[in-house]
Description:
Layout: E1 5-9, H1 14-19, H2 23-26, E2 32-36, H3 38-49, E3 61-65, H4 71-81, E4 87-92, E5 98-103, E6 106-112, H5 113-116, H6 119-126, H7 132-137, H8 141-158, H9 165-172, H10 176-182, H11 184-187, H12 194-212
Helix pairs in contact: 8-12
Amino acid sequence: xxxxxxxxxxxxxxxxxxxxxxxxxxxxxxxxxxxxxxxxxxxxxxxxxxxxxxxxxxxxxxxxxxxxxxxxxxxxxxxxxxxxxxxxxxxxxxxxxxxxxxxxxxxxxxxxxxxxxxxxxxxxxxxxxxxxxxxxxxxxxxxxxxxxxxxxxxxxxxxxxxxxxxxxxxxxxxxxxxxxxxxxxxxxxxxxxxxxxxxxxxxxxxxxxxxxx
Length: 213
């Protein structure tokens, strides 16, 4: 099978340190090219230094250790990839928590190295590396994004006044699934009122209670 995901790590022993015995499982995914230091890493670094970003064209999922590359390289790579529908993950000890965003059709995840090298990575790969939310939050990703959206909406609604959906969408930066599950009807309205948000909050609260029970 042709590789369609690549993991680029500059430090040879980092994966063994974090995954321990599960490193064998990581290397068993036939669709994953696992670059863990060595000459493979040097070759990729040299190409990216020369702005030869096409070296990553064949991969639909690109995961790389952020601090292994200079800011100029990272920015150039992101600029090159922003018109694609690839998934890009930057992991590093300098990243706090995790943050998912979209740049055009590109899905982009920033994640702490300890969260990255965990059972979540193996779960993500077992499910063919299609859902970045699994990498970020694990098997309970649906509950995690719901809790996050619920907390955001509580704070947002306190000082809310009548606004168009476009403003709310920009301000809250909601996950696509959350928008589909809870905001579809509101997105069809010209204006949204505080009472509309209270209805959504009530539904979210009921769903959270069902998940936690």
